Amino acid sequence: MIQVNENFIKLPGNYLFSSVAQKVNAFKTAHPEAALIRLGIGDVTRPLPPAAIKAMHHAVDEMASADTFHGYGPEQGYDFLIQAILAHDYQPRGIELRPTEVFVSDGAKSDTGNFGDILGTGNKVAVTDPVYPVYIDSNVMAGRAGDLKANGQWSHLTYLPCTAENHFVPSLPTEPVDMIYLCYPNNPTGTTLTKAELQKWVEYALEHKALILYDAAYEAYIHEADVPHSIYEIEGARSCAVEFRSFSKTAGFTGVRCGYTVVPEEVKAMTTSGEEVALNHLWNRRQCTKFNGTSYITQRGAEAIYTPEGQAEIKETIEYYMENARLMREGLQGAGFTLYGGVNAPYIWVKAPEGLDSWSFFDMLLHEVNVVGTPGVGFGPSGEGFLRLTAFGNREDCQEAMSRIKNWAGR
Ligand code: MLT
C-alpha cells in the first residue's frame, strides 16, 4: 500500500482557525438564538475598494472578446502589477528592486507556506513565539520541526519568546539557526519592531549566513514613525531576506487572493557540495512548475489600488479598522484588561483575567457574551494566558462587543 508523508500525521488534528470555527459552529448549533460577534479569524469585513471593483469589471469584459482575452499569464505576475508595486511600495522608501525580484501570487499564506520547498530539510528553523501557525505547520510537513513535545513546542524548532516581559521583542537565538520567520507588524500580538531592532536581525542573518523570511502582510497598518515598512529599509537585508506582502488586509483581498514575494538576486543558499545558489532562480523554478499565476482579473484589481482613487479608498478602510482598534483598546482598558497591539496593527492581544488560561477565556467569552476571539496559546506556548481580538469587524459589532465585555468584567 502507498505510504503517507508521516510528517502530516505529526500535526495536531486541525489548523488553529479550523478548531476555533468548529467550536463556534457547535455553540451556534446549540444556541441558534445567540447573536455572535466574530472577532476571531483575521478576515476583513469592508467591501473591496471601488477602484478595484471597476478595474476587475473591466478585466472581465476584456475576457469576453478574443482580441483582449487573457489565457495563462506569466507565472511571476503581469508586468503592469509588478511595476506598480515597485513604484508605490518600494521606490518612495528608497528601495530599488528589479522587476524579476517580485513574484505575484495568490497570497502570503501560500508563499510563506511554500517557500520552504526550495530550502533544505536539514535547516534549523527559528520562530517567534507566539507565531502565525503556517510557519510552524509548513515546517512540520517538510520534516524540519521534529516531534511535538508535552510543553507544546516542536523538538527541532528554536522558539524566540515574545512576552510582555521582553516587550514582545524577541532576543537573538543563542544556538545557530538557518531560517528565521519574522512577522511585523506582528500577527498575533499586534506589536512592531523599530528599525534598530530589525537591524540586529539583519546583522545576525548576515553573520550566520541565515535567511530571514519576513512577513509584512500588515504593513499598511503602520501608523508610527520609526517602524520599518519593509525589511529592505535595513542595510544588508537584500542579501539575507525575502519579504512577503499581501493585498488581503491592505485592500480587502482575503477572498480575491493576491499577494507577492520579493526574492532579491543576492539571497543565496548552499548546496551540500558547497556551491552557492540564488534563491530567486529556485523560487522562479518552483513557481513555474507548481503555480500558473494569479488571475488576470485579480491582478488588474490589485493594480487599481495603486491609482490615486485606489490609494484614497484603501486608506479610508484601513482608518476604519484602526478606529475600531482604538475603540476596542479604550473599551478593554476601561473594563480593566491589560492589552497590547492595536496601534500599528489590526490585532489586539488581551491578557486573560487572573487564573484563566487562553481556552477558558475563549470559552467564557463565547458562552457568556457571545464574542469570538482566538486563544493565544493556539499561536504557541508563549501565547498562553492571552486572547487575540481582531479589529476587522464592523463598527457596531466592535462597539457592542466592548459593551458586553465591559458588563461581563464588572459582574
Ligand atoms: C489570522 O487570523 O491570523 C489570519 O486569518 C491569518 C491569515 O491571513 O491567514
Automatic annotation (TrEMBL):
InterPro entries given in the database record: Aminotransferase_I/II_large (IPR004839), DapL/ALD1 (IPR019942), PyrdxlP-dep_Trfase (IPR015424), PyrdxlP-dep_Trfase_major (IPR015421), PyrdxlP-dep_Trfase_small (IPR015422)
Top-level division of the source organism's lineage: Bacteria
Cofactor(s) named in the record: pyridoxal 5'-phosphate
Positions bound to pyridoxal 5'-phosphate: 72, 108-109, 132, 187, 218, 246-248, 257, 292
Organism in which the protein naturally occurs: Bacteroides mediterraneensis
GO terms of molecular function: L,L-diaminopimelate aminotransferase activity
Chain's role: Involved in the synthesis of meso-diaminopimelate (m-DAP or DL-DAP), required for both lysine and peptidoglycan biosynthesis. Catalyzes the direct conversion of tetrahydrodipicolinate to LL-diaminopimelate.
Protein name as catalogued: LL-diaminopimelate aminotransferase
Record bears the keyword rRNA processing: no
Family in the record: Belongs to the class-I pyridoxal-phosphate-dependent aminotransferase family. LL-diaminopimelate aminotransferase subfamily.
PANTHER family per UniProt: AMINOTRANSFERASE
EC numbers: 2.6.1.83
SUPFAM superfamilies in UniProt: PLP-dependent transferases
Residues bearing PTM N6-(pyridoxal phosphate)lysine: 249
Biochemical pathway: Amino-acid biosynthesis; L-lysine biosynthesis via DAP pathway; LL-2,6-diaminopimelate from (S)-tetrahydrodipicolinate (aminotransferase route): step 1/1
Domain Aminotransferase class I/classII large, chain residue ranges per copy: 36-405
Catalytic activity: (2S,6S)-2,6-diaminopimelate + 2-oxoglutarate = (S)-2,3,4,5-tetrahydrodipicolinate + L-glutamate + H2O + H(+)
Keywords, ordered alphabetically: Aminotransferase, Pyridoxal phosphate, Transferase
Lineage: Bacteria, Pseudomonadati, Bacteroidota, Bacteroidia, Bacteroidales
Subunit structure comment from the entry: Homodimer.
